[in-house]
User: What shape does this take?
Amino acid sequence: MTRGSRGATVGNPSLLPALAVTGEKEALRFGERALNYGELRAVAAQLAGRLRGAGRVAVWAEPALETCAAVVGALVAGAPVVPINPKSGERELSHIVKDSEPAVVLAAPGARLPPALAALERVDVDVNHRGSDEPLPAEPDPEAPALVVYTSGTTGPPKGVVLPRRALSTNLDALAEAWRWTESDVLTQGLPLFHVHGLVLGVLGPLRRGGTLHHLGSFSIEGVAAELAGSATMLFGVPTMYHRLAEAAEGDPLVARALAGARLLVSGSAALSTADHERIERATGQRVVERYGMTETLMNCAVRADGDRRPGTVGPPVGGVQLRLVDDDGSVIEAGEGETVGEIQVRGPNLFLGYLNRPDATENAFREGWFCTGDVATRDPDGYIRLIGRQATDLIKSGGFKIGAGEIEAALLDHPGISEAAITGEPDPDLGERIVAWIVPAGDPPPSENEVADHVAALLAPHKRPREVRYLTGLPRNELGKVMKNRLG
Ligand code: MCA
Ligand code: AMP
Assistant: This one.
């Protein structure tokens, strides 16, 4: 174990070492509700006592203190956590529950759970539990699964990405090193807690450092401005949030001043447009730091705190991550080959263990031990990576959420008023891409735009519903019957 120069314990085999040492210091705050490290430890120890040997546990991941405490308690117990989007639709929720077979569900007292979860044994998370200083159980093996995070693919239902404890600890340490992230930092963010960005970087990140998280409950300009004008030093967000902040900072000097005072503004999960990067710089003097990751790999690249914050780049690989660019013929593109475009492939301690119950998909995702991201990029002369697109047009990033076209198309085809359906992503200044549904109605009158959106939102999640519906008499198909999406739009 090495002790970082800024007091952060880097390389500590314990996932959350601060639980053992930092008593009175504030760990987590959601508005008026907060837990210091001693209190978090007591709540986690009690939960861990209930969960030891439980197998996987589902966590009803509302943006609340209980969610963070539940995740910490399960990690202390060594029970892999399956975070659940509380806005999941029936179909995706029943898939996740069947696939991950959680032994119990952890939720805030009083939270109303949908039938698929209500059938499981329930453990209420009591964040007011204090109790005596129960010893924490022995730390599980670093290779043991910590989280199972569901992520969409081009077709079929979402896959469960099994992340080991080792990936979390090494990747968070690499980010701490790149961003000089220490126990003195107060992170603020309003991200959902059922994805890697909000949960791993945004909750476990500050907790691993022994720092503090001020979660906004949900993202708002006012919330960000108040936190950054107060004690918060760092902001994590997706480009949609920075787009909205750029607009607000241009019109409101209070917002501009708050952003200007941050130590670090970090954007990720999708591309931050050069225009928004520059608007924020003009309005605040701050240049946003971009980082690039995936659920399967955690963070691969990041612009360092002391690095050149060039718009359109996500910086060099972070510590421990090996990255190569591979062209269409499978040849590795050497550094210095300038503008040559290739797929990003990575390996290192940041990688997941595999997709739950999907050895076929896991095998397909690797070439010669390298994980194939499907993202295409170029490399600047100084090693900075520039993402320029994705191989799969059937994956859409909207508001920072990854959305598979196939999953929505299958949901649309279950509507009796729809005989053919295709989903595309169209550029959107706020969301990055917006979901557009192309449908061929089965009869007259056709289902209305709202009816189509509500149908998808009930089966899947609200962010998967089409923002626009376009009606056609037939979809353009090739001789094999495959929809030619490049002819749509
Ligand atoms: C949306 N709405 C609709 C429709 N579409 N209503 C009717 N018809 C429609 N077609 C609803 C939404 O459900 C929402 O309602 C309201 O309209 C506003 O939607 P929206 O414009 O999307 O705004 P928002 O709700 O304010 O959300 C923007 C957001 C959100 C806050 C930026 O997209 C977000 O939290 N994104 C973060 C995603 C994220 O964490 N990704 C990380 C993945 P209601 O309010 O009732 O719901 S991890 C990852 O990617 C890797 C590892 C990485 O690198 O980080
Ligand atoms: P997810 O499956 O939700 O984890 O999304 C991972 C994908 O988000 C990556 O494969 C990239 O396509 C995209 N992504 C993440 N960070 C960035 C970034 N900074 N710039 C562009 N795309 C990004």
Observations:
- The two ends are 55 Å apart (CA to CA).
- The pocket of adenosine monophosphate (ligand 2) is lined by residues 151, 196, 268-271, 290, 292-295, 314, 373, 375, 387, 390, 397, 402 (CB under 6 Å).
